[in-house]
Amino acid sequence: MAKKAVPAKSVGKKAVPAKAAAKKAVPGKSAVKKAAPVKKIAVGSPAGETATALVRRARRINRELAEVYPYAHPELDFDNPFQLLVATVLSAQTTDLRVNQTTPALFAKYPTPEDLAAANPEEVEEILRPCGFFRAKTRSVIGLSKALTEDFGGEVPGRLEDLVKLPGVGRKTAFVVLGNAYGRPGITVDTHFQRLVRRWQWTDETDPDKIEAAVGALFPKSDWTDLSHHVIWHGRRICHARKPACGACPIAPLCPAYGEGETDPEKARKLLKYEKGGFPGQRLRPPQAYLDAGGKPAPPLGAA
């Protein structure tokens, strides 16, 4: 015998089976929402490139920057993980040069976490005054030194989850330490990195953690630390926030934002930071080599 069809109940313009409608709401019980699944950052370009094209262009840019900055490295002076950790915390809202001028006196007086943990805050403040926000930074470096002493035996931990628990230490600082003191890959999303990857249309994310995930998906993990150095060095020397030196940029042919800055080669070259005080590890071609006969960006280094 054929089974009878279950009558449907009308809900608005749609019809749903009676059994389904009965399950939809239970009198006296409030609905429990399930947690939304964690969103993964998909590989895709704001400019509409295919995922494959974006990966190829991003990796090509990194290869070109590796030729321009073969010796790119963290520009903070340090002799051990503790010094790098403290110097990175101090570098917020100031220059690496200023930090490098300040830390020798700090580490001479307080060479270990135990020493800095027991320091007189007023004396530390006086040393850190040139770095700006010296009171907050004093609290952070003394606080992280106490945490290292009490929780990690005076050693800087080599795990992300431990580092971010320290006062004044976020993911950016943690990845600087992991990548450069312990050789563990990480992406350092500082202001230069954020600006350039958005300018290059690798991502349109604005949250640092989402930028980290989006860019990390474009590269093998083993490239992350060197990639961070290449991008940051380029942002400090050529691809400036207000006036990028487009006409002297070695990756101009690969950059969707070419033309936002100065495109005349001679004028652009005057904007390069290395002109004003040293540019270790930089390899640049003559200004005219960046444009072809028609005044457009010439092929990048190594192009066929």
UniProtKB/TrEMBL annotation:
UniProt keyword terms in alphabetical order: 4Fe-4S, DNA damage, DNA repair, DNA-binding, Glycosidase, Hydrolase, Iron, Iron-sulfur, Lyase, Metal-binding
Cited InterPro entries: DNA_glycosylase, Endonuclease-III-like_CS2, Endonuclease3_FeS-loop_motif, Endouclease-III_FeS-bd_BS, HhH-GPD_domain, HhH_base_excis_C, HhH_motif, Nth
Region (Disordered): 277-304
Entry binding sites for [4Fe-4S] cluster: 239, 246, 249, 255
Domain HhH-GPD: 90-237
UniProt enzyme class: lyase
Cofactor comment text: Binds 1 [4Fe-4S] cluster.
Record field: catalytic activity: 2'-deoxyribonucleotide-(2'-deoxyribose 5'-phosphate)-2'-deoxyribonucleotide-DNA = a 3'-end 2'-deoxyribonucleotide-(2,3-dehydro-2,3-deoxyribose 5'-phosphate)-DNA + a 5'-end 5'-phospho-2'-deoxyribonucleoside-DNA + H(+)
Pfam families: EndIII_4Fe-2S, HHH, HhH-GPD
Highest taxon of source: Bacteria
Enzyme Commission number(s): 4.2.99.18
CDD domains in UniProt: ENDO3c
Names of required cofactors: [4Fe-4S] cluster
Role according to the record: DNA repair enzyme that has both DNA N-glycosylase activity and AP-lyase activity. The DNA N-glycosylase activity releases various damaged pyrimidines from DNA by cleaving the N-glycosidic bond, leaving an AP (apurinic/apyrimidinic) site. The AP-lyase activity cleaves the phosphodiester bond 3' to the AP site by a beta-elimination, leaving a 3'-terminal unsaturated sugar and a product with a terminal 5'-phosphate.
Family: Belongs to the Nth/MutY family.
HAMAP family: Nth (MF_00942)
Protein name: Endonuclease III
The gene coding this protein: nth
